[in-house]
Amino acid sequence: MKIDPELCIACEACLPYCPMAAISMKDDVAVIDDDECVECNVCLKSKVCPVDAFAFEMPPYPRSVRHVFSDPRTEHKETKIAGRGTEEMKTNEVTGRFKRGWVGMGCEFGRPGIGTRFRDVDKVAQVLAKHGVEFESKNPVTFLMENRKTGKLKPEVLNEKVLSAIIECLYPIEKLEEIMKALKEVAKEVDTVFSVEVINRADPDGSYPLRKKLDQMGIPYYINGKQNVGLGRPKADV
Amino acid sequence: MTHTLHRRGTRESLSEDYVMLCLPAVGVNNEGHAPKLKKFLEIATKYDPVNIGTIKLGNMYSHSKEEVVKAAEAVVHAVFVNQGQVADVLKDLEKADLGMSVVVSGIFEKVDECLKKAGLKHHTANFSLGIWGKTERLPSNEILEVTTMCGHAMVAANLVREMVKEIKAGTKTPEDAAKVLAPQCACGIFNPARAAKLMAAMAAK
């Protein structure tokens, strides 16, 4: 993202709109810190600038990943899904992605509102890989891995900053305790925050075995969450 | 795409916050899905949502409701503030038999009560285990309660602070301040009614 210094009238109206606080005033002109800017386009799309001084041009790779991961209005070219992740459990009754006895897990880096460099994503992905998780093949972060067995990301993206990026993976419910312990340890080594989510198919009686397991392990979870209500067709056998 | 999952707040506040999503499964039933998503939004708008949106266009604070409904594609959203609305929408969706996936975000037991009223059962859940890592970098919990209503983080913490200042100064009502925040969340999952209450409480301190 660029601000045309010839057009900027130094009204400062755009400053609070930037989710990364990457816009500041310098010599009576609003300027963007290129290294902190995640190319989310919030400043431009907000139309807050009274003189249209913002201009976006898709940057070349690897900087282009900033835009793809940070602006949810951008469709990922491989997954055909807008945003940073996949349909995950939202279409599970149709796709059958999450079967009974399995846990789907997402680690959403940079969320909420801090942003992340891919080097932190890489660090955690490599730890999860060591514990044998299966990375979601349609997830945009998985596309950035040079090796899906090790979880290692392509070196050229490691310093790129994005608003958020999600590692999505799958493992048998028996591995939950081991994975949670590993995640807790590696969480001490990252320079950002990440929101963690776990997905589970309900049993025929409506209970969630994962919830029982979390309770047993003393792992807290929010009182609110997301539930697929099973209206999609055709139904998958899950 | 876990944009509606990690909303933060007290039980009382979250009791006034329900997000419904409707979408096809890409590669399975997405052919001809747009009219079905349009129908979802038509049903939702009958029950006075506080927001509706479709990501490629925006939401009802950046466009008219009619424009949003017409542009329904890929995934659509509607936000409600009480269980009665959610149960009524679910009942209509069950009858409409769109064949599209529907997800409801909210307090688990309250959503389950709505499902029961509509004769439906939950299929799969996504649980939030909260925020891990360098949490000392986060803004205050009060700010997060507002910003996490846009899971894509399009609503900046500084913009919330700015709006609270304006409410304090009397230059904006909480409702008008919420209307400044709402258009930033392109999906239309931001709950302006709840945001207005939260910001009014912050400004009153």
CATH fold field value of the largest domain in chain B: Alpha-Beta Plaits
Biggest beta-sheet profile of chain A: 4 strands, antiparallel
Ranges of chain B with pLDDT <50 over ≥5 residues? none
User: Strand-and-helix sequence of chain B, N→C?
Assistant: HEHEEHEHEHEHHHH
Kindly report the oligomeric state of this protein. heterodimer
Strand order, sheet with most strands of chain B: 3-2-4-1-5
Order of helices and strands of chain A: EEEHEHHEEHEHEEEEHEHE
Note down, in words, how this protein is organized.
The complex is a heterodimer of chains A (238) and B (205). With 238 residues, chain A is of the alpha+beta class. Chain A has a domain of 135 residues. Chain A has 7 helices and 13 strands. Chain A is elongated and about 65 Å long. Chain A starts with a strand and ends in a 10-residue tail after the last strand. The mean pLDDT of chain A is 94. Chain B folds into 2 domains: 107 residues, Alpha-Beta Plaits (2-Layer Sandwich), CATH 3.30.70; 70 residues, no CATH class. In chain B, 43% of the residues lie in helices and 17% in strands. Chains A and B meet through helix 3, strand 5, helix 6, strand 12 and helix 7 of A and helix 4, strand 5, helix 5, strand 6 and helix 7 of B. Strand 13 of chain A pairs antiparallel with strand 6 of chain B.
Would you summarize the structure shown here?
The complex is a heterodimer of chains A (238) and B (205). Chain A has 238 residues and is α+β, with helices and mostly antiparallel strands. Chain A has helices at 42-45, 64-70, 92-95, 118-130, 140-143, 176-187, 209-217, and strands at residues 2-3, 23-26, 29-32, 54-55, 102-109, 116-117, 134-135, 145-147, 152-153, 161-162, 165-172, 193-201, 224-228.
Question: Which terms summarize this structure?
Answer:
heterodimer, A: 238 residues, alpha+beta, four-stranded antiparallel sheet, two-stranded antiparallel ribbon, 22% helix, elongated, B: 205 residues, Alpha-Beta Plaits, 2 domains, globular
